[in-house]
Amino acid sequence: MTDTLANPFRSQGLPTRQSDTLPSRDAAAVAKLLALCPAHAETPLRDMAALAATLGVARFHIKDERSRMGLGSFKALGAAYAIAHDAARTAPSDWSKALTGRTYVTASAGNHGMSVAAGARIFGAKAVIYLAHTVPAAFGARLEAQGAEVAWAGDDYEASMAAAEAAAEANGWTLLSDSTWMGNEASGYRVMEGYLQMASEAATQIPAPPTHIFLQAGVGGLAAAVAAFARATWGDAPQITVVEPKAAPALIESIRAGQLVDTTGPVSDMGRLDCKTASMVALNGLAVDADTFVTISEEEARETVATLTAHGIASTPSGVAGVAAALLKRPQLGPDARILTIVSEGPEDV
User: 139-159 burial by CB neighbour count: b if 16+ within 10 A, else e?
Assistant: First the structure.
């Protein structure tokens, strides 16, 4: 299969879909709630002039999410926002006890779990995070440091999510996934809504609208939220490319099939993107909003980690996947191109 696919469903959406739900575009609601959080602060948009010169384009910008709310990843905007949304509905007199007695459970490849753990701790709830055995042990330790209970289950994200879903059913806990599927749209929808803050900030920071946007994807939440905001803000002009590991081509293969499909593949070094089944709502949105889907190799991701480290931005293969496609896939970029990418997380050893 080719590693690049033009989206034949652009603007119309998938011909066969399990749900008509599309990602939220209400960035104002997110900003209003996050304004109540003392840990919330804007992350920087970095002007990478040297990379722009290398590609022969006008501008190359990186939205740098490595410092987001002290959790080291854009994921801080997702689950913690969804939990804050639940807390606000209780009209609390004491926010630190708003959700006392409630337990949130999820599966994670690391960063989503950090957001669940932090959000639960802030509002007085408990967090139980299921991790696949392929997740680095360091992430488990970081989750426990946030006060979460960590459970190890399965050899991939899908297996750990099945375990989390079973635990939620058995114990009456709240399942808070960063994905969506039939019967479980609400929590993942709210998590994706939180990611709109990242796109909204970038829109105010960037000196001129981007002509090309490259977005890494696991289940697709980040890509779908940013793409939805981009279309609402800049219309059809930006060319939006969604980037996945070759080992986990959940979105590109679903677009190829015209419907949500499960995929298989080896374990990827892009661990936070190593998801074999896309989020249903994210796929719906990207089928409408994305122009192109591409996959990148493990080697391309590692090469880009080295490149960005040399430019002072340390991250992981997962964190730089969108940048990798911009630098290495050689899309058609003219001298006036203005590129927007995201470094979605910091290095694993910090």
Answer: bbebbeebebebbebbebbbb
Asked if 177 and 186 count as a contact pair (C-beta separation under 8 A), the reply is no
> Would residue 126 count as lying in a domain?
yes
Measured between alpha carbons, how far is residue 267 from residues 19, 135, 155, 210 in Å? 29, 10, 9, 33
Write the pLDDT tens digit of every residue in 211-262: 999 999 999 999 999 999 999 999 999 999 999 999 999 999 999 999 999 9
Shared-domain flag, residues 112 and 44: no
Residues 236, 260 share a domain: yes
Residues contacting residue 206 through CB under 8 Å, at least 6 positions apart: 45, 61, 338, 340
Is residue 82 within 8 A of residue 191, CB to CB? The reply is yes
Q: Is residue 203 part of a domain?
A: yes
When divided into structural domains, the chain yields a total of 2
Q: Which of these three, 143, 177, 211, is where a domain ends?
A: 177
- List, for residues 178-224, the tens digit of each pLDDT value: 889 998 898 899 999 999 999 999 999 999 999 999 999 999 999 99
pTM to 2 decimals?
0.92
User: Domain containing 162: what range?
Assistant: 79-177
